Amino acid sequence: MPIRLILDFLAAVGQRAWFFGATCVAAPRALRRPALIVEQVFFVGSVSVILIGVGGLFVGLVLALQFYTALSRFGATSSLGGLVALALLRELGPVLTALLFAGRAGTSLASELGLMRATRQIDAMEVMAVDPMRRIVAPRFLAGIVSMPLLAGIFSAMGILGAYLVGVKMMGLDPGVFWSSMQHEVSFHSDFVNGLIKSAVFGAACTLIAVYEGFHARPSAEGVGQATTRSVVISSMAILALDFILTAFMY
Amino acid sequence: MRQSSVLEVTTGLFVVLGIAALFYLATQTTDYRTVSGSQSYIVRAYFNNVGGLHVGAPVQMGGVTVGRVVGIHYSMKRYQAVIRMALEDRDAHIPSDSTASILTQGVLGQQYVGISPGGAPTFLKNGSTIHFTQSAIILEHLLGQLLTHGSSGKGK
Lengths: 251, 156
Hints:
heterodimer; A: 9 helices; B: 2 domains; 3 helices
C-alpha cells in the first residue's frame, strides 16, 4: 500500500506544519508572560551550560590537534587559529551544540510534555480555558530560540580556548600569530552573524520537534518513551538537513 | 521564594555567560574592528588582470592594512577589470599619483592590493581613481615566458 504510506507521510508533515503555525501565532501572546519564558530558559539553557562548555573544550582540543598535524606537513601551522575558529563558528559550533541540546534539553522537554499528556494535565488546562499552546508550547519555543545562540557562543568560545591550549601551550605556536590569523580569516558578517542565525534556527527546530512529540505522545508509559526517542531522532536529522540547506544559502 | 531566586540567579548567570561568549567571539576572533572601525572612502583602480583577487582582500601600504577591496567588476568601456577599494579615513593623505599593484602573500598565499605612495601634492578623495596600476602576475604566463625563452636560448 504505497499510496497509504505517502498519505500518512503527508499527514505527518501537515500536522507538524500546523503545529508550527499555531506556535508562531501563540508566541507573540506568550511574550506578555516573560516569567514563563525565563523559567524555560533555565530549564533548557542553564542546565546545558556545563555539558556544552565541556563538549566545546574537547572539540577544540581535538580540532587543534588534528589541524596541527595536518598543517605541519605543509609548514602552515600559523593558520591554525583561523582554521579552528572558522570551523567552530560556521559549522561545528551551531551543529554540535544543537545535537547536544537535542539530547540534553530536547529529551527532557519531550518526556515532560509526554507525561503532562499522560497525566491529563494538558486536558485539564483546556477544560480551565487555559490555552496550552500559549501557556506550555510557546514559552518553550521562545526559550529555545534565545538559549541556542548563547549556548553555541559558549561552545565556540570554549573550543577556541581548547585550540589555544593545544596550539600555543602544548605545541608552542606564537600566541600573536594564533590570534591574528583568527582575526584575519574570520569575517564578522559572513561567519559570526551567519553562525548566530544558524543556531537560532536550530534552537527553534529542536524545541519545536521535542515539544510536538511530547504534546502528541500516546498517553502511556510506553508512549512517553517513544516520543522521547522520536524527538532525538527527528531533531538530529532535522539539524543536519537544515545545516546543509542553510550553508548552501549562506555561503 | 528561595527556589525561585536560585532559579533566577542561575538563569541570569547562563545569559550573562552566553552574551559574554558571543561578545568575545565577535570582537576578538573576527575582523569586526577592521570592518567597522573608522569611516572609509572609496577609490577605484583599473587593472588588465586582477588574477585571483577577491572581494574582502586587504589593501596594504608598506605591509599595513589600510583598507579592503569592496568590489570587482569588468568595465566594458575600457575593457579592463575595475576594483573598488574602501580605504580607512585616518589614512586620507595618499598622494593621487600613487601606484596600486596586485601582489601575493608568500608563494601560495592570498592576493592583496599594495599601494606605493607617489609624490604628488594632491591626495586621493572619495570616488577618485588610481591611474598607475600593475596587474597580477599570472604564474602560467610567467612559466610560458620562461619556457619559450629557455627553448629559444637552447636553439641558439
